[in-house]
Amino acid sequence: MEREPHNEPSEVDAEEGAVLVEGPDGIAYSMTPGAAYETSGRLMFGAAKAKGQQIAKARKRTRGERPGDNPDRADHDKSSAKGDG
Q1: What is the pTM of this model?
Q2: For the chain, which residues make up each domain, given as ranges?
Q3: 28-31 and 11-15 as β-strands: parallel, antiparallel, unpaired?
Q4: What is each CA distance from 53 to 32, 37, 43, 45, 73, in whole angstroms?
Q5: Which burial class, exposed, middle or buried, applies to 21 when counting CB atoms under 10 A from its CB (0-12, 13-18, 19+)?
Q6: pLDDT in tens, 21-69
Q7: What confidence score (pLDDT) does residue 63 get?
């Protein structure tokens, strides 16, 4: 990622049947209602995915794991060996 992500949400409104978006750094654009609806779903999915990545990264730091370690896989292997999984 070249630039730091913005921490400010965009302003959104509707005017004359179009959805207007004003974001940081003077970004402004309009979309049809259909495009805005589809984009909103993609934003929610992306936000959930990014939040999950942040949580996973924080857990690895807390546990002192190295990049590439997969503690979930190790837990799965242990539970399978016990007959739990």
Answers
A1: 0.66
A2: 11-82
A3: unpaired
A4: 31, 25, 15, 12, 17
A5: middle
A6: 999 989 999 999 999 999 999 999 999 999 999 999 999 988 877 666 6
A7: 83
